[in-house]
Amino acid sequence: MAQQDTDQQHAGALPVDDEGYVIDTEDCEEREAAWRERGTSRPITVVGNPVLHKECRDVTDFGEEFQQLVADMFASQRTAEGVGLAANQIGVDLKVFVYDCPDDEGVRHTGVVCNPKPVELPAEQRRLDDSNEGCLSVPTAYASLARPDYAEVTGQDEKGNPIRVRGTGYFARCLQHETDHLYGYLYIDRLSKRERKAALRQMAENEPRYPVVAND
């Protein structure tokens, strides 16, 4: 297993594999708990809130205030029983998401991605999966949405170190979903008008199981 350089290890970066992808499957329970226990859970912003419908600002300051934001995001994700959470889902206009998500083999992945950029795959590698998708910002609603069953993103970790993250199946969907958030897109924006209306109707007919910020 290839290791990142000494400076990155001292900065708290996760190790990488022989192909340069971050290893986010080790010590997941301990790492998630360490973040969450330092954080304060915040209510979730829901569809219609302006912060969800515009591209977020790049993260440029990785200092103490930002570290507290990441901790709050892990705490908020746990309260809402989610597998991924973008900063604008708790009202913060910054390009960062956290995840604590299994892949289709049941392997748990936990990490932080700042300033993510999706890696475009060659057409021959794009196999679509049309599983159901939901979103904490569209509570209680689900819809089938075709996405590639493999995804890669590049970006930075919570310390500003460059990282590459890849995933398959459900985790691939999570990476794409959370990256979309930071560019101002909800999953329902990728649905047909009829399907979008149906999802919003599901949301209107049910009560969320976690605190949300009501839109004025």
Automatic annotation (TrEMBL):
Pfam families: Pep_deformylase
Cofactor(s) needed by this chain: Fe(2+)
A GO BP entry: translation
Cofactor note (record): Binds 1 Fe(2+) ion.
Keyword Metal-binding: yes
One MF annotation (Gene Ontology) recorded for this entry: metal ion binding
Superkingdom of origin: Bacteria
Residues given in the record as Fe cation binding sites: C135, H177, H181
Keyword annotations from UniProtKB, A to Z: Hydrolase, Iron, Metal-binding, Protein biosynthesis
Keyword set includes Protein biosynthesis: yes
PANTHER family: PEPTIDE DEFORMYLASE (PTHR10458), PEPTIDE DEFORMYLASE, MITOCHONDRIAL (PTHR10458:SF2)
Matches recorded under HAMAP family: Pep_deformylase
Family designation: Belongs to the polypeptide deformylase family.
General function of this protein: Removes the formyl group from the N-terminal Met of newly synthesized proteins. Requires at least a dipeptide for an efficient rate of reaction. N-terminal L-methionine is a prerequisite for activity but the enzyme has broad specificity at other positions.
Protein name: Peptide deformylase
Gene that encodes the chain: def
